[in-house]
């Protein structure tokens, strides 16, 4: 039997387990009362301790009126959780505790120095080595250790406040020490600022003197270089050559523009004269006063000629005289235009000469400006050096003045303040008689109850057999006596259990050997007298001539033949399904991988192996509601596996019955042997399950006509090697024996 099977044979009887508490109530109550009394005595006799608490606020305390110019509180970093935790460590540092111990003379109190008043128990523990000798520790360290044990410094959650708790036998001393630690911390921060200011003034004074000399030398170098290089500053903060070059460049551009305009005007007038075009469209001609007067005279003459032409002919002397005057005016206008052209040409030549002169001057100033630029770079470098040193000097002087004024006036703001002084406690925080006594009573009661339950559990008295483990013995059922025939007697072979059925099929005389009871025959009241007249059978069981074998031989047959499938048919119904279960377990105990497939309608084969019928099984697999891994379960009493009937709709599952050969092939591939319990099936029903290496078994409890008819039908329908197997009398060691109405 496997370990799993052995472990599942017993279960815990909770009623028996918890009944042990009632049987041992007196012992539990007495021990609980004893422990409670001891706890009450300890709390009553223990030395009371008082705890006082002082609170500090960590933050800037600088006034806006005393703050150095150019700074504010926003420039200072705000302490985060790590910063507050650092201050907690500083408060509990040995330096501050030493100051408080010295101020309050704690080394003279037995509470802080055990050597002043050492108890006899303490001396005994030192002698046996269970406690270190306090005389080996320096006095200051003994006091500090005692203060550390009674001190608790912590940051208040979600604030920048720090609480200082101190416990002592003397309530007044507890408050004094807590306030003394807070005052010592604030004083240490003030001393640290004083030392920082003193160190700052000592550093800044010589630095300022040195910077003053360096600034003076730098500015002197700037002035000397400017005088040596003749770098005269002009407008727009630029040197004189650069400024002159800019002005000449502007003048050159203006002259070039004037020359270009004069040349363009002269060219336009010249082109108009050459082409004989009207000069009225030329701006220079229109701007001449003489030409405008001549144009006015032309207009008057044309008007006179037009007036006279109305009364006189063109050859009239007067009209001819006017036309002659008009022609003279045109010649004068052209002469004036020629003069304008010559004037514009002269203007262009003058502008060209001025342009040449300006270009020469610009070239000269370019060289001078380049030299001035190089010198300006050197001058700027000297000027920057002087400015940097001056700015540093001014910064140092401002810091020195601020630090010196604070030092002289003794104004040293500390970034911490006492927001709550420790008050003298009136009630001790230890011991609390009520909570200690109640906790001791509850803990002792709980431990005693647990100990009692564990003792009952380990003693085995609270154990009971697991459900389904005990089985009743199978009733020994007498097999019916078959009529003997000479043929059967002659052909009977003791070594073959299949001889009777083979002889029956060969001689076709089975009806003469085995009585058949028609299935349609009904019991009528009139047949009772006939039955009473028949001789009663003997009560003792007679040996069967049907050749059945037991479970052990069936398992040996399967193992020896190397069968891959074993089909069990149980014509007697659920009662005979025990054969398949027992054979499966026997083969599994032999070391083979075996699986039982339950195809009964009621799950008679799988239910005793799983103690439940609610597991998914073959119907779920056929209905495509589960996979192989979901429907294969381990047997509770062996190493075999089982596929139960399942929980799916049987009608829906049977629609996919054609998948059974595929499922059987898959299971045969995975296991050494697949046992199928078919219930009262016929030859047609097991046809889908038969394959290579298949053995067919007929389970039986009684050799009645029902079994006989089932065997004959199976033999006649192609299963001549049918084997009869019975579970009667099978009781393997350590395995529950199947009952008359149970499969296992």
TrEMBL record:
Q: Which residues form a coiled coil?
A: 291-399
Q: Where in the cell is it found?
A: Cell membrane
- Extract the Pfam families matched here: Wzz
Q: Any idea where the Polysaccharide chain length determinant N-terminal domain is?
A: 11-104
Keywords associated with the record: Cell membrane, Coiled coil, Membrane, Transmembrane, Transmembrane helix
Q: How does it sit in the membrane?
A: Multi-pass membrane protein
Please give the residue ranges the record annotates as the region Disordered.
516-545
Highest taxon, organism lineage: Bacteria
User: Any transmembrane segments, and where?
Assistant: 25-46
Keyword match Transmembrane helix: yes
Report if keyword Transmembrane helix is assigned: yes
Cross-referenced NCBIfam families, in alphabetical order?
A: eps_transp_fam
Protein's recorded name = Exopolysaccharide transport family protein
Taxonomy-wise, where does this protein's organism fall, top ranks first? Bacteria, Pseudomonadati, Pseudomonadota, Alphaproteobacteria, Hyphomicrobiales
